[in-house]
Amino acid sequence: MEFKDRLQTLRKKNGMTQEQLSERLNISRTAVSKWESGRGMPNIEALKRLSEVFGVSLDELLSGKELLDAAENEGRERVGRQSTLTFGLLDLLACCFAFLPFFSQPRADYIATVSLFEYSQARALKIAFFAALGSMGAWGLAALAVPVSLSGRLRRFARFGSLALHSAAIALFIAAREPYAAFFLFVLLLAKVVLIALENR
C-alpha cells in the first residue's frame, strides 16, 4: 500500500475530513488533497505531525523507500533554501561595492581609485553603476525576504535573474573600463556558479 492510500485510510479511520486534518496539522487542505492523490509528499516535519495525530510510527505511514525519498526531498529543499539565501547575500555584497574604492578617477597626473560616491567622471555612467549595483542589492533583499516560501520553479527563476543581473553588471563595468569592480563581481559570479554546480551533483 502506498503512502497516499495509507493516509486516506488513516484519516477516514479516525473520522476526519481533509479539512479537519489540515487544521490539526496547521496546513492547507490543498496540501492534504495533493498527498492523498499522490501529487505531493509531506516534508519530514509534516510526517512527524501526521504520525502524532494518528498515533502511528513513521514506519506505519511510509515504506522504507518512501521514507528515504522523503528524506532526500527534504535534504534537497534545505540545500535549495540555503543556496537561495547565499545568492541573496552575494547580491547584497555586490551592492556594497559602491562603498569600496573600485572605480578609477583621473587626477592631475595619476589615476586614483575611489568609491562610487566619490566618482565624478561621467554622471550618466555613475547613474548606470548605481542602477546596476542597486538592482543587484534589491534582488538580493528579495531573495532573503522570501526564500522559504519559494517553490523549485520560483527558486530557479530567482537564480536566473540573479545570474542575469550579475552578468549584465560585469559587462557594464568591463565596457566602462572599470577592472576592479568587474573582477570582484566576476569572483562573486564564480561563487554562484560553484554553488549551483555543488547543488546539482
Automatic annotation (TrEMBL):
Domain (HTH cro/C1-type): residue spans on this chain: 7-61
Keyword Nucleotide-binding found: no
This protein's UniProt keywords: DNA-binding, Membrane, Transmembrane, Transmembrane helix
One of the Pfam families matching this protein, by short name: HTH_3
InterPro entries per the UniProt record, alphabetical: Cro/C1-type_HTH, Lambda_DNA-bd_dom_sf
GO molecular function, one term: DNA binding
TM stretches of this protein: 85-104, 124-145, 157-174, 180-198
PROSITE patterns documented for this protein: HTH_CROC1
Protein name per the record: Helix-turn-helix domain protein
